[in-house]
């Protein structure tokens, strides 16, 4: 039976009766009822009432080629009929993960040519954590196992993902994190730069926090540093250009591996295939998922640098790690087709040379001047709008995080889906957006800001 046999109300009732949602206050949701999205096409999603909403978040940072791609459905269908599943354990392989690995090795930054598959970003980060610790053990340094991460970083929701991440509320519910992971300051100039400190100098100071953490533990105790090139769920926090090269210099100086989590930034989001290329760095591992299939199938790929891979292969011995769905044939078939579409349509170049710069300019010209907006920032097609009570002093509305939700709700009512995290509005649209789509989005956001201002000033 398909959902068409149920009314919206019935679906909501059943949802409330049986479905536990991710990152949700279940009491609150069950009182309010869920928004049920039933179909989508191009840049638009549609709810059960038929309301058209422009999807400013590409689903959840993933639908980079937009919705309604027949080619992706056909790739899945064909592969399912031919070979829906076989594993890649016990010296077996199937064609699509083999070919996808070759493709990823071609696209990846220099020195990165190996791939380990999972089904989610969280799984890929579990793999990454285990792999770097295994690497140092193989190198005869098992005590070199501390990982340095960042406050407000997001690396997934499994126990390892939560432990790597720096989200306090998640840690509070964890009941014991994976040991020996520490968190340093994030490179977020808007709130953390000192008065008069340049962006460049702030970037260097934030990188210095990594060096301090290495020195505190002793370099022979530190395995790796992990970070999102641009923090995503933490609020699209774009580091100064001085930050990443300096972090890389520090990591090399102390022989600490550099792990990038590109689950959001991978596959074109910042105007290069990987943000490592945008920031000019050469990491040892790159965690990817989401846009690898544009969200049409669950799939993650941990891209592994040659240094780690060489040790793994040369020293031998089994790495006791893997998932039933590692290298899933259908997910990999969809990924291959998705990458083909991104290449064929030149979406990465378009973000770099056309829509990315236009998006930045549109946010500056049409959104930044609003009374409620403290700052706008973007890189490629990834942007943030800081909601404040007072532009000059950067004072926020209280309670913290309450104002952005008001803007978001007005935006959705205007036909514009975006996300509120803390006091920050986030945009991460499909890479198929054109200048016209950006214009449409800015118009709706500006209207939402006007309406929200009326509500918020009444407080
Ligand atoms: N790393 C990063 C950088 C992510 O953004 C993950 C790992 C975990 O991926 P999986 O596939 O296990 O979810 C993510 C996921 C949000 C939000 O609210 C962001 C994510 C997931 C759920 C919500 O912005 N990112």
From TrEMBL:
Keywords: Aminotransferase, Pyridoxal phosphate, Transferase. It comes from the Bacteria. GO terms for cellular component: cytosol. GO terms for molecular function: pyridoxal phosphate binding; transaminase activity. Belongs to the class-III pyridoxal-phosphate-dependent aminotransferase family. This is Putative aminotransferase. It comes from Mesorhizobium amorphae CCNWGS0123.
């Amino acid at each position: 039976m398909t959902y068409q046999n149920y009314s919206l109300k019935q679906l909501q009732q059943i949802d409330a009766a049986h479905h536990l949602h991710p990152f949700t206050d279940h009491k609150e949701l069950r009182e309010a009822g869920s928004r049920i999205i039933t179909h989508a096409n191009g840049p638009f999603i549609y709810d059960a009432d038929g309301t058209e909403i422009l999807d400013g978040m590409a689903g959840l940072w993933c639908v980079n080629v937009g919705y309604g791609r027949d080619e992706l459905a056909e790739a899945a269908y064909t592969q399912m009929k031919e070979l829906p599943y076989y594993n890649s354990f016990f010296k077996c392989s199937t064609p699509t993960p083999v070919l996808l690995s070759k493709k990823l090795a071609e696209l990846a930054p220099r020195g990165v040519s190996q791939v380990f598959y999972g089904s989610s970003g969280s799984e890929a980060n579990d793999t990454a954590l285990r792999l770097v610790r295994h690497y140092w053990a193989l190198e005869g340094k098992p005590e070199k196992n501390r990982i340095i991460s960042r406050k407000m970083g997001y690396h997934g929701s499994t126990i390892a993902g939560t432990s790597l991440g720096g989200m306090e509320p998640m840690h509070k519910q964890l009941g014991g994190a994976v040991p020996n992971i520490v968190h340093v300051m994030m490179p977020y100039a808007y709130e953390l730069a000192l008065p008069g400190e340049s962006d460049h100098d702030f970037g260097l100071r934030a990188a210095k926090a990594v060096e301090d953490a290495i020195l505190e533990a002793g370099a022979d105790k530190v395995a790796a540093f992990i970070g999102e090139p641009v923090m995503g769920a933490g609020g699209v926090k774009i580091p100064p250009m001085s930050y990443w090269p300096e972090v890389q210099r520090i990591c090399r100086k102390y022989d600490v591996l550099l792990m990038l989590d590109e689950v959001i930034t991978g596959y074109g989001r910042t105007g290069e295939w990987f943000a490592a290329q945008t920031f000019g760095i050469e990491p040892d591992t790159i965690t990817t998922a989401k846009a690898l299939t544009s969200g049409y199938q669950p799939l993650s790929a941990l891209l592994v640098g040659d240094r780690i891979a060489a040790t793994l292969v040369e020293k031998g011995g089994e790495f006791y790690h893997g998932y039933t769905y590692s290298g899933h044939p259908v997910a990999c078939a969809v990924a291959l087709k998705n990458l083909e579409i991104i290449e064929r349509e030149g979406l990465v170049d378009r973000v770099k040379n056309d829509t990315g710069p236009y998006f930045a300019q549109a946010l500056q010209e049409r959104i930044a001047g609003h009374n409620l907006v403290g700052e706008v920032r973007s890189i490629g097609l990834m942007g943030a709008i800081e909601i404040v009570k007072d532009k000059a002093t950067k004072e926020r509305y209280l309670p913290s995080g309450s104002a952005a939700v008001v803007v978001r709700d007005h935006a959705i009512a205007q036909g514009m889906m975006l996300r509120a995290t803390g006091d920050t509005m986030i945009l991460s649209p499909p890479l198929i957006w054109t200048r016209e789509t950006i214009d449409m989005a800015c118009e709706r956001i500006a209207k939402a800001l006007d309406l929200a201002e009326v509500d918020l000033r009444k407080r």
